[in-house]
Amino acid sequence: MTDLSCLLAGLINLLGPMLLLIFWHKKTGARILPAPVALAVCLPVFFVAGAIRAGFDRSDHLSFYLQQALLYGIFEEGAKFLVLRYLLTSYDDRRDAVTYAIGHGSFEAIGSGLACINLIGTGRAASDIFAVNLIGFFEGAAFCIGVTILIFYGIQMNKSKIMLPLAVFLHFLGNLSGALFITPVSMAIRLFLTAGICYAAYRCWKSMQTDY
């Protein structure tokens, strides 16, 4: 039964982003290109961030987690800003921000999916692996979409000096909660944080016009 849970958890993460992208495209007519661009951008971003993290001192756990959370907040949200602001200049519809977020989130989801698949047959998987990954996938997708909309709003409304640091800070908080607290506590914190981000993103979404 545990192996089946590992398989299902893996499939959620591996297939979830594609299914979410298809649903979003069919539902809204959003353009597809920002998603593969985001996925491609994530590879060098995570590689460089990982190389920098490898040089951090791990003897002080709190300091290490603080540095790691801030590092990935800066790199991930900074990369989103640079690509949406300077590369995908013709993709200026608010729906494109969601598409980009789905592609960005798929990078980590694929990694999580492969990790779950690799646990099959090892007997090392937690009994709640399916439930944790099911909740984690949807929460992670909502978190990434919400923060990306905030960045996109900053670009469109000329408020990036406020929205980009805010996005980095929110990403920092999300990463830090996952590192410092046990899973039930960190999930509760993340759900609360994501709910607030989604509300703010909804307000920003409503204030932006949409037109291809």
From TrEMBL:
Protein name according to UniProt: Protease PrsW
Lineage: Bacteria, Bacillati, Bacillota, Clostridia, Eubacteriales
Transmembrane residue ranges: 6-24, 36-56, 129-155, 188-205
UniProt keyword annotation of NADP present: no
Pfam hit, one: YhfC
Organism: Ruminococcus flavefaciens 007c
Domain of life: Bacteria
Annotated keywords: Membrane, Transmembrane, Transmembrane helix
UniProt-listed InterPro entries: YhfC
